[in-house]
Write a structure and sequence with these properties.
about 230 residues; alpha/beta; Rossmann fold; 7 helices; 7 strands; about 45% helix; about 25% strand; elongated; disordered N terminus
Length: about 230
């Protein structure tokens, strides 16, 4: 009987350790992420918008081509799926019009302004007169009232972590590589030339997180937060 109790106890301890080890392999940050910073202009008025253009995703640090492509393709589709109030003009339609109308110089000015905004962590982008003129030309060509633009930075950092099991037995910290994705999103009104909504989001996930999973979390994070509170009508 004692041998049976010892066997059961040993199996229980083994099962507990196994569960702890498995739990250590899953990062608690591998979830849809919420904005760390939100700004909503008091001038935001949904009734003045019938169509919004989704600008191509911009990377200001360490671009991952796969992430850029997946977010470019997935974000317009997700916004079309989750809202019916506005017509959504996808990034590829915008790029075609930029090329057809010879607006390449204006687009370059816009990217330069956007990079300056995200790298200095400003609350709202300050666009130059050249970029505002580019927006006006694009608005005339495509008939939309608002622009959504997204920028991200990607990095990999090494952090020292102690697993649950390691902490139990006094094991030293072990280096772990984490993927870090920082995203800035803004909604810009062309009529008032004001930024209506700004959000900054960040995701730190395990090295095993694929680029497709990271892109999906960016898309869901933006769409979910656009669907809540004051922005629920989008």
């Amino acid at each position: 009987m004692k041998k049976l109790r010892d066997t059961i106890f040993s199996l229980s301890v083994f099962s507990l350790l196994s569960m702890l080890l498995l739990s250590c392999g899953t990062s608690s940050t591998d979830v849809i992420f919420k904005p760390e910073m939100n700004y909503r202009s008091p001038q935001l008025d949904f009734t003045k918008v019938q169509a919004a253009a989704i600008m191509p995703v911009n990377c200001y640090s360490n671009e991952v081509t796969e992430i850029t492509g997946l977010v470019n393709d997935g974000l317009p589709a997700e916004l079309k799926r989750t809202q019916v109030a506005w017509k959504i003009i996808s990034y590829d339609e915008v790029l075609r019009k930029v090329n057809d109308a010879g607006l390449g110089r204006g687009y370059q000015n816009y990217i330069a302004d956007l990079n300056t905004y995200v790298t200095v962590a400003g609350m709202t982008p300050n666009f130059t007169s050249e970029t505002k003129n580019f927006f006006d030309q694009l608005k005339k060509e495509m008939n939309f009232e608002a622009i959504l633009f997204t920028s991200y930075g990607f990095s990999e950092v090494t952090v020292m972590e102690t697993s649950i099991v390691g902490a139990m037995f006094g094991a030293p910290n072990q280096p772990t590589v984490k993927k870090v994705l920082s995203v800035s999103v803004a909604l810009y009104d062309l009529t008032s030339q004001r930024t209506w909504w700004v959000a900054k989001l960040s995701l730190r996930g395990s090295q095993s997180l694929t680029n497709a999973e990271l892109a999906r979390k960016v898309i869901e994070g933006i769409a979910n937060n656009f669907g809540k509170g004051d922005l629920r009508q989008l």
